Each structure stands twice: as structure tokens, then as C-alpha cells.
Amino acid sequence: MPAVLEADGVEASYGWIRVLHGVGFAVEDHGITTILGANGAGKTTTLRAVCGMVKTSGTIRFAGQRIDGKSPEDIVRLGIAHVPEGRGTFVNLTVEENLKLGAYTRRDRAQIAQDFDRVYGYFPVLGQRRTQVAATLSGGEQQMLAVARALMLRPKLLLLDEPSLGLAPMVVREIFRIVRAINQEQGVSVLLVEQNASTALELADHAYLLETGRVVMSGPAETLRKDEGIRRSYLGY
Amino acid sequence: MDTFFQQVISGLATGGIYGSLALALVMIYQATDVVNYAQGEMAMFSTYLAWTMINAGLPYWVAFFATLVLAFVGGVVIERVVIRPVENAPVLTIVMVCIGLLVILRSIAGWIYSYIQKPFPSPFPQKPLQLGALILGAHDVGAIGVTLVVLVFLYVFFRYTPLGLAMRAAAQNPVSSRLVGIRVGWMLALGWGLAALVGAVGGMMVAPIVFLDPNMMAGILIYAFASATLGGFNSPGGAVVGGFIVGVVENLVGTYVKFIGTELKLTVALAMILIVLVVRPSGLFGRVAVHRV
Questions:
Q1: Do the domain assignments include residue A45?
Q2: Is A228 a domain residue?
Q3: What is the CATH number of the domain that holds A12?
Q4: What is the DSSP secondary structure assignment for residue B239, as one 8-state letter?
Q5: Model pTM?
Q6: Which ranges in chain B belong to alpha helices (H)?
Q7: ipTM of the prediction
Q8: Which of A90, A108, A112, A133 to mutate to test the interface with B (most CBs of B within 10 A)?
Q9: What are B138-158's pLDDT values in tens digits?
Q10: CA–CA separation, B21 vs B205, rounded Å?
Q11: Are the Cβ atoms of B178 and A53 closer than 8 angstroms?
């Protein structure tokens, strides 16, 4: 399978503190790839590097094209949607307005209308709360809204930053089920960053393990799940 | 009773002007958390531009709309050139920049046009309107109308257009806005442009009442602050309603409370600011801002 996203030797710092020390990974086209790691391993920074929110060195290619050094606004226009840590909801806007913003860079009105139906199909609860202000949604609903907003871009690649954070296991399962459906039905490639290793490894086909800014292990999700060290440190049994 | 209604109407007229300026303040405050102290001077300068065009022989409404365009462009340019470099600086720095802008605009206006008061024409007839026993100034009624048109235009723009939505989003959540592809910096610049445009309308409507001079907005900006405080600094609609209330109260107090008269009217505005801040700091329609720390 060809890679839709390839990162090589990516370094990133916040002020004097270097967070990524030459991270490299690839996301297969139409695949689901996960990056696992503990708090502070650099998972979120890796996603931020991809979407241009932190300064980086090294190369990042999307569909063969260099995207490192581009601004987030330009990277979105290439078809990379980012569901940020903490969901990034526009809390004072309605559900529908949040979704409209997801399609902000698109000009194909007819298809945007279709995508509203599609998204409300995946997340019926958002359809019911269409005119509600997003602040009134529950945490799980806001996470759904964040994923739905990203889908409104009709992305080629979806970046998900800890979608399970702070949600009940049932809700997490529901969201992951929908992510899989989106991946299979729409052919959207997914890069998922997670602390919740067991759920992420069930969903993904390929996985990377990040420790203090370095990739320490990678391979098919199946292999990582069976790995003794991973099981003890990250799966907890 | 007639005096009462006449005072209410002329209060609504000036109130609408306070409201426009208050709205301009609130638009910028919501987007950047900064009160633009130069808002009044930007409006004053725009009004001088209108005066120049009218004096050069352009018909009033041509000059009016040309001024709106120039004010808008001017607002965008000021944001890009003066505010942008200090965007991430502490609030106090930006406040200082705004005050600097105020002084500069006032001095440039004084340098070009002198400090002598100039009459500014009203587009509305001289003849008062007669409604039964009620005699209303045509400019008062016209100014109310113009203000309402501007408000409806802004409401429709922010509520129903994609660009309006993007500007609201950028004001609320800049990070998420960038992630959906909104060019936040430009949205802020457009916000300054629109605020300058709204202020220019206020300037051109108030100039026939107070006459045109480089200091004409000093008092009016205080009324605008009172309006925005009363309505709530995070509520655009509230700022406008606040403007109308301040205008009417100012006029009625000036008419019926003998010792205040016209000289102490401005004190009423300051008293209102003080009372609102003590009794209900978020204003009538504002929400209490909760910051996560």
C-alpha cells in the first residue's frame, strides 16, 4: 500500500525544550494508523507538526508533496482535517454552524448539502441538536461534533487527537465504530493518536509507539498487541 | 407631553449614534479583547473625508458611500500596519498603541483641516416633520433610520453569510478556526474595517448636530463606552440597545433635572458607567466571562 502521509526525521521544540527527536512514520492510504504513547511522549506535537501548528525540521510529505513549513490554513486546503485535543468546539455557535465551518474551504455547495445529510446519518444525535448551541452538548456529543466537523471537509486524511479522552467507554466504542465506518465507506485515511492503547490497537492496522519524542517500536497493530512489553506497559495486563 | 416625546425622539437619534460607535467598540473587543480607544477618532477622520468630498461638489450620498468604503479600507490598513505587529503583546501595549493612534489621527486632522469647527450637512430636509402636535427634527428621524439600516445589514451579514460566520468563529476560537482553514489574521482586519465603517456612519450622522472638529468624538466616545458597558461589552445587540437607552436618559435628565441641564449631561454618562459596573458588571445583556486558569 502506498503511503498518503510520510514523516521523516521530524524534530519540534517548544522554546528551548525539544519534544520530538527525529520522528518518522507513514500512514497508509485508506488505512488506519495509530501512534501510541504515554503522557508527554510527543503524540499531540506529532499531529501538530503534521498540520503546521508547530515549527519543525525534517520532512513531511502528503500525497507526495512537501507540507512541512506550510501554514495550517493551507494544509487544510490539501484535505487534511484535524480533530484537536480538547475537541476545539466553537461553543457559542450552533451545531449546524460548527459543521458549516468544517466545510469553510469548500465551494461545492451541492455536495456540502449532501455531506450534512451524511454526517447526520453517522451521528443522528447531532441532527436532533442541529440548532442547539454547542456548549449545551455533552462531552461525547462534542467529540462527535468535532469528528463530524472534520468530515465536512471531505478530507483525504483525518487526524484524531485522543478522541477517547474523558469519555465513558460506551461512548468511546461508539465513536471508534464510526471512525472505522468512515474509513471503510469513504476511504478516508486516519492517523489516530491515543493513550488508550487497547482500543486504538483494535481499530488500527498499523501502529507506532512513541517514547519521549522518539519512535521506539512500529509494526502491524496485531504484532504490537501481542508484544510482551507493550502488553505490560500500555495494555495493563 | 410633547416636549417629552420630542426629547425621546432626539434622544433615540443621538442614542443610535452612540449605539453605532458602541457596536464598533464591541466588535473589536469581542475579536481581540481590546477596547479601541481610537474608534472615535477614526470616525472623526472619516467624517472629514466625507466633508472634503462634499465640499469638492460630490452629491451627499455619493460622498457617504465613498466614505464608507474609505473607512473600511482604512480600518483594515490600520489593523494590518499598526495592530498586527503587537497582536500577541500584552493588552496594555495594544491599549497604548490605540491611544497613540487616537492622538495621531486627531493631530493629523487638526493639521490638515485646522481646529476651527465646520458645519457638516445633513442629507435630510431642514424642515421639521409634523406629526399631529408633535414636531420632530428630520435629521433626528433620518439618523434613527440610517442607524437601523446599518444594524440590520450587520445582523444579516454576521448571521447569514459564510464570511460573517467565519468572522464570529475567528473571534471566538482562533486555533480551531485556523484548523478549518479560516485566515484568522484577515478576519480580524475585516473586523477592524467593519468597525471603522460603522463608526464612520455614526460620525457622519452626529456631525450635523455637534459640528465637525477634530475633538468632536471625545464626548461621544464616552457615551459609547457608557452604552457598551450598559448593554454588555460582549453583546453587540446589547451595545445598540444600551446606546438608545443612554441617548434617551441623557436627554430626559438634561431636560427635566434642572441643575444638570446641558452642561452636566456628560456626567450622566459617567454616572451610568459607574452604576452599571457596581450593580451589574456584565451589563444588561452581557454574559459573565468565565476564564479557565
A1: yes
A2: yes
A3: 3.40.50.300
A4: H
A5: 0.87
A6: 2-32, 39-55, 60-78, 91-113, 138-160, 162-172, 174-179, 184-210, 217-231, 236-256, 265-279
A7: 0.89
A8: A90
A9: 898 899 899 889 989 999 999
A10: 11
A11: yes
